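Hi support team,

I submitted a single chain yesterday and got back a structure, but I'm not sure I'm reading the token output correctly. Could someone confirm the output below corresponds to the sequence I sent? I've pasted both exactly as they appear in my results page.

Thanks,
R.
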Amino acid sequence: MGRNATKPLSVAEAKDRLRTAAENANPITWVKRQPIESVLTALATGVLAGVSVRSRKEIIEGITRIMEMTTTANANPQPTPEPENEKAGAGAGI
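Hi R., thanks for writing in. Yes, this is the structure output for that exact sequence:
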């Protein structure tokens, strides 16, 4: 559909990619990358836990969804286009 075909990775590249993903797959990394979302999630969790006794399952599911969405977005960053003046070559805009 909207995916670009990529060449297969070598074993060393695949291992390196897996190692990087495993290092980033922990709550501390997520909190460091999304400090505002982390604070808002903690605040919302506290409010919901204080208001409803039966909301524990919904809180856990919501936090999991938020973390999955942001982790997916961070794992697949979209390339940023080059500014027009840099495409022409060094010193072209001077």
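A quick pointer for reading it: The chain is about 65% helix and 0% strand. Let us know if anything else looks off.

Best,
Support desk
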